[in-house]
């Protein structure tokens, strides 16, 4: 499956870059000996950002699959989409 929706791809890239910055911040916090609660809070934010990026990609894949399915040739079958979705759950 290749993502065809450039708006979604752009949004996902922004989200991943933000997560990348948050992760770098977590590393700096650990190196500086910051409080465990602060580190875990930021790590949870990184995890949520990654999850949202993954779900956006899967949602776009589902949309493309449904659209392609209307023409009779689905881009991804149900089992593969389910596997992708569950990989993030």
TrEMBL record:
Please give one Gene Ontology molecular function term for this protein: metal ion binding
Which terms are listed as keywords in the entry?
Copper, DNA-binding
Say which domain of life the source belongs to.
Answer: Bacteria
Keyword Ligase among record annotations: no
Pfam family example for this protein? Answer: Trns_repr_metal
Q: Name one GO biological process term.
A: negative regulation of DNA-templated transcription
- InterPro entries for this protein: Metal_Tscrpt_repr, Metal_Tscrpt_repr_sf
Family, similarity comment:
Belongs to the CsoR family.
> By its UniProt entry, which PANTHER family does this protein fall under?
TRANSCRIPTIONAL REPRESSOR FRMR, TRANSCRIPTIONAL REPRESSOR FRMR-RELATED
Q: Which protein is depicted?
A: DNA-binding transcriptional regulator, FrmR family
Native source organism of the sequence: Blastococcus aggregatus
Question: What are the leading ranks of the lineage?
Answer: Bacteria, Bacillati, Actinomycetota, Actinomycetes, Geodermatophilales
């Amino acid at each position: 499956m290749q993502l065809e929706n450039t708006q979604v791809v752009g949004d996902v890239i922004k989200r991943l870059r933000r997560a990348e910055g948050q992760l770098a911040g977590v590393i700096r916090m650990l190196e500086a000996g910051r409080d465990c609660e602060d580190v875990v809070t930021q790590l949870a934010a990184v995890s949520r950002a990654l999850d949202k990026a993954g779900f956006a990609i899967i949602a776009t894949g589902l949309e493309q699959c449904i659209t392609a399915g209307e023409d009779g040739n689905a881009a991804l079958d149900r089992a593969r989409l389910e596997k992708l979705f569950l990989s993030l759950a």
